[in-house]
Amino acid sequence: MTDKEIHKVNVERANHFRLLQTNINFQALVLDHYFNEYVLELHNQLSEYTRNSEQYNEVLRKLDAISITKSYFLGLKETGRWSEEELHFLMINPNGDIDD
Fold it and tell me: Could you give the CA distance from residue 17 to residue 5 in angstroms, rounded to a whole number?
């Protein structure tokens, strides 16, 4: 893939995520419940278990998974924003090089 094609894919993915964020079901289930309420539930569960026990570590794995998912979504937004800027630059300077 060329840099331009990669940037177009990045922008497309960011746009898909933007659309998801406007969906009330996604907002309720993922943005509100999974990223907030469920995280609080998991944090509360940590106090019920002995540190480094199997149950404690399982809760930590769930929290890590949520963190990774949030980071993925944030990365989609940031990469999409950066790719939009790069595509704009290429439109203005069709023969310009993209800095890697």
Answer: 19
Domain ranges across the chain: 3-92
Residue 92: the pLDDT is 81
Which class for 80: exposed (0-12), middle (13-18), buried (19 or more C-beta within 10 A)?
buried
pTM above 0.85, yes or no: no
Quote helix, strand, coil % in the chain, to nearest 5. Answer: 80, 0, 20
> d(Cα 54, Cα 94) in Å, to the nearest integer?
56
Instruction: Give, in degrees to the nearest 5, the angle at Cα 73 between 46 and 97.
Output: 140
The widest CA-to-CA distance across the chain, in whole angstroms, is 61
